[in-house]
Design a protein that fits this description.
By secondary structure, the protein is an all-beta fold. Helix content is about 0%, strand content about 50%. Strands 2, 4, 5, 6, 9, 10 and 11 form a 7-stranded mixed β-sheet that branches. Strands 1-3-8-7 form a 4-stranded antiparallel β-sheet, with no helix packed on it.
């Protein structure tokens, strides 16, 4: 059974940092793209950033560029989202996902809440 489980969310103040983790199991994701998405109340889901299967290539939404960084371990089944300089507008449920292509995400986690107070 394929599972993606996010952890590390919480309540922080503006300017703080958080690191989210995504643990994937049930199959090897070493050849899969992985990504972070978020959805704030009343808003559409937004792609935060993605990382290639090799971990050598990543891209980010303009809203988080320079503040957030995605990485994955050498086995490819654990992914991280380092979030620095958090802003209240970063408040959302954050989801990790995995897929066979940069725009094809087949597997999704349940999400972890990140709340940034001003």
């Amino acid at each position: 059974q394929v599972q993606l489980v996010e952890s590390g969310g919480g309540l922080v103040q503006a300017g703080d940092s958080l690191r989210l983790s995504c643990a994937a199991s049930g199959r090897s994701f070493s050849s899969y793209y992985m990504g972070w998405f978020r959805q704030a109340p009343g808003k559409e889901r937004e792609r935060v950033g993605i990382i290639s299967w090799s971990g050598t290539s990543s891209s980010y939404a303009d809203s988080v560029k320079g503040r957030f960084s995605i990485s994955r371990d050498k086995f490819g089944n654990t992914m991280y989202l380092q979030m620095n300089g958090l802003k209240p507008e970063d408040t959302a449920v954050y989801y990790c996902a995995a897929g066979s292509g940069a725009t094809m995400f087949n597997y999704w986690g349940q999400g972890t809440q990140v709340t940034v107070s001003s």
